[in-house]
Design a protein that fits this description.
The protein is α+β, with helices and mostly antiparallel strands. The protein has 7 helices and 14 strands. Helix content is about 25%, strand content about 25%. The relative contact order is 0.19. The protein binds 2-oxoglutaric acid. The site of 2-oxoglutaric acid has 7 residues, from strand 12 and strand 14.
Amino acid sequence: MARSLDKKWQHWLLANLQRGCSPAELKQTLAKEGYGEAAIHKAFDELPDLGALAATAAKASINVPNARRFESSSIELYTAEDFLDASECAELVVLVKTTLRPSTISTPPSGEADQLFRTSRTCDLIGGEGAIARLDAKIARAMGIDPRFAETSQGQCYEVGQEFKLHTDFFKDYELDRFSTPLWGQRTWTFMIYLNEPEGGGETRFDDLDLTVKPKQGMALFWNNLTASGAGNHFTRHQGMPVTAGTKVIITKWFRTARTVSPVYTSVRITWTQGAKTAQRG
Ligand SMILES: O=C(O)CCC(=O)C(=O)O
C-alpha cells in the first residue's frame, strides 16, 4: 500500500500552503521525498478548509444561559455559576491530583525567570473518553468554538502559599512563533473552572479592573484575551492569589485563533515584565 504522509509532512504541507507556496511546487517536493501520486492526492484532499476553520476559530458564540458579563468596556469577561456540578468537580479533582507536575512559565528574552512566579502544580488532561471528553465537549459548546482550536485542558492545584503572579495569557511577540502550530496562532479565550473552594485565599484578581473573583465550586470564569482588533488586551492581566488555607484546584482551557502568515496580533508597548525577577505587581 502507498505510504501516506506522516504528521510531520502533513504539517509541512499545511504550513507551506498557508504561507502561499504553490501546490505544484509542494507536490514536486513530496514526490522527491518518495511519496506516490495517490498519497499526495490524498494529502491534498484531506486538508482542512482553512477559510471555514479560520472563521469558526476567530469568533466565539457564547452559549451559557446563566453567564453574567462583568460590566466593563475594557474586557469581555463572564462568570457562570454551576457550570459543573459537585460530582463532576469531584471526579475531575481526582484526575488532576493523580497527574500533577510543577507548573512552568516561559522565560522572557531578557530576563531570568522568577522561580516563585507560578508555584502551583499542573497537569494536562488528555483523554478521548470519560470525564475529560465530557469536559472538553462542554467547554467547546459553551464557547461555540470548533474544538480543534482548543488546547488540551489543564488542571492546576495550589497548596498553601502557592500562587500564580500577575500575567497575561496571550502570547507576547517573542512567544507567538514558538507556540504556534500549522493550525494555531494566538490565544483567544481563557476558560477557567473552580473545582473546589480553598478555605482561605486563592482568588483570581484582575488588577487593572479592580476585580477579585472568589473561587466557588463549579463556577466558570472566562474572558477574551484579545481586543476587537486582535491585539493582546492588557486589561486581562490577572493573578492567582496565594492560597492561605486549604487547597485550590482549577481547570484552565485556552482557545486559539487560526494561524496567519504574518501575525496580526501585535501588542501595545509593554511597560512591565512578566516572569522576570523585576516583575512589577500592578
Ligand atoms: O489560579 C487562578 O485563579 C488563575 C490561573 C491563571 O492565571 C491561569 O491559569 O492563567
